[in-house]
Amino acid sequence: MKPLLAFLACLSAPTLLIASEPIDIGSRRELFVDDLLIDKLSGEAELRLHHPTPREVAIVHDAPWEGSGSGYHTVFQDGDLYRLYHRGSHLEVTPGKLGSGDHPPFYCYAESKDGIQWTKPELGIVEFHDSKKNNIILEGLGTHNFAPFKDTNPDCSPEARYKALGGIMSEGGLFAFQSADAIHWSLIRDKPVITKGAFDSQNLAFWDATIGKYRCYFRIFTGGVTTKAEWKPTGVRAIRTGTSSDFLNWGDEADLTYVDSPQEQLYTNQIAPYYRAPHILIGMPSRYIERGWSESMRALPDREKRELRASAHERYGTALTEGLLMASRDGVLFKRWNEAFLRPGIGRPGSWQYGQQYIAWNVVETASSLPGAPHELSLYATEDYWHGKGGTLRRYTLRMDGFVSINAPMKGGEFLSRPLNFTGSKLTMNFATSAAGSVRVEIQDASGEPIEGFSLADCPEQFGDSLNHVVTWKDGADVTSLSGNPVRLRFVLNDADLYSLQFAE
Fold it and tell me: Is 32 helix (H, G, I), strand (E, B) or coil?
């Protein structure tokens, strides 16, 4: 038995070593949209999902070439300019009938200098009703779901500085587009680059500097036959991903999986690297729920209800949509928050209907409306979809890194990290407390023993509200002596939220 025990010990030793290997965070900003850094939450501490604050209506789709079917928005900041793209289309939903207005879909463009006030420039590109005085950038192929991005690949050619995917199954799949100025677009090649999927959603791609490749995310149906010749969607609306080195040849396809979430209908995905921590991919998909008739549909006469129920578009009266939050570090396995990130909302009959809270792709940084306050995140979501003369896009705001926090009430709670390696001379945190609340921080060695000078007793109460607060101990803030050595972080919180942390120079 002794030789066998020795053999098993040799096998298990590397496994134990790997299991206890410190997480190397370097000088990256780390958020709590997953539990990678968390070894233990104790007391009343918990991970808390936060919700965006509604602001003004950013865009009203009231031009003749836009309308109530306008959607699949993309927003990104490009230097001093904010760019917004969306489908321009109109839906006429009446009992027993769904119409698409008097024109096919177009893709439209708007821009802003601050991400708050938007204009629709006259571009002179596409003719509509004998005039080119409009903000249309694209007609025909790809206009159901065109999704542009600025390519940050260092090897990207100038004529392809902006890229996009667009297309649906009846067109053959997803096509690759390019542009030198983000306004005038052309096909990179005349054949689709991805052909196996459903694509009847906002399908997107971007350059992921963390892996040095392009990533794409697109709609599939679990169990569905999705070919141009035969379209039979069955199962559940889901998301598939792939990677590419050249944006044309895609592989490594995988269906997204989730840590602890049930199978649900996900309409869009809106996945992108979070620009303040680009090693973390954050998505804001739309959840599609069948819950029966909305209040506005219940008000219809019985005859009209029967006609609508018999139509192919019953979902326009019975389905609901809302925004979710999810995050990943490998692009395939996501931590998805099962609670809604952006609920349908209160105050208007049109809120609790299909098409509400489709979040636009990407968050952007904007100035706060509070004088002297730091910048915040802006995101945008649809309202008034499919009914009325024109849909709208509302802006919402969120604290920087403010998706999820480690929260504790006044009773108190603690967060103990897994062993970490870091580089830097100071520990900063994005946190907020009440006037009576506080955060204290202890740095331990890998075995959990407090390091002299950095114990909890050495740390005065840190209080306030800051995006970049430098943690101090009795002897100051310098942690250079610990850089490169495995440590654990212990946070003791009272009526406080911890949104992110970062070691910096």
Answer: coil
